[in-house]
Amino acid sequence: MCQLTGYTGAMRSDTSPWLDDRQQRVWRQWLQSNARLTAALARQLSQDSGTSLADFEVLVHLSESPEGRVRIVQLADTLQWERSRLSHHLTRMEKRGLVERQGCTEDGRGAYAVLTDEGRVLIEQVAPGHARTVRDLFFGELTDDELAALDRFTAGLLARLDQR
């Protein structure tokens, strides 16, 4: 039987493009886990503060920068968002007083996304609950050995993705 990601039968060679049964199961678990974890994190943020996960991601990156500001093009690259998506999102966040845009004096063409005082207060209020939820749902039952294996796996995956 052919599935979206490949043949799920027992026969498979190393040159086959299809996933074997175990790979298929793990891949689908990964996709479902990612979707459900993202939904749970979004629910937690919404319930605790009315903040979206996208808002939180922007606020985290701005709050972690030394001056509370990041070039918009760099922020889009970091978030893996299209620039137009980030622009629209920043507009919504600006209307709520969480961020503002500042021109770039270095080249006159670029702009910065800047964390406002209201944005800093919000991220400081919501970050502890978010961290608790991540710790409980993602790290809750991992042993030290499992965490080390997961660290190696995700570092390797990111390295492969960066190569493309």
What does this structure look like?
The chain has helices spanning 21-49, 53-64, 72-79, 83-95, 117-139, 144-163; strands at 2-3, 6-7, 69-71, 99-103, 111-115. With 164 residues, it is mainly α. It has 2 domains: 1-50; 51-128, Arc Repressor Mutant, subunit A. The strands form 2 sheets. The protein has a 3-stranded antiparallel β-sheet. A two-stranded antiparallel sheet has the order 1-2. Strand 1 and strand 2 (6-7) form a beta hairpin. The protein is globular. The two termini are 31 Å apart. The model has no long low-confidence stretch (mean pLDDT 91).
Note the main sheet: 3 strands, antiparallel
Any low-confidence stretches, pLDDT <50, length ≥5?
none
Q: Provide the structure class.
A: mainly alpha
Question: Over all CA atoms, what is the radius of gyration?
Answer: 20 Å
Shape: globular
Order of helical and strand elements: EEHHEHHEEHH
Q: What strand line-up does the widest sheet have? A: 3-5-4
Oligomer: single chain
Q: Give the helix level as a range of percent.
A: 55-70%
Number of helices: 6
In whole angstroms, the N-to-C terminal distance is 31 Å
What's the rounded overall pLDDT mean? 91
CATH topology of the largest domain: Arc Repressor Mutant, subunit A
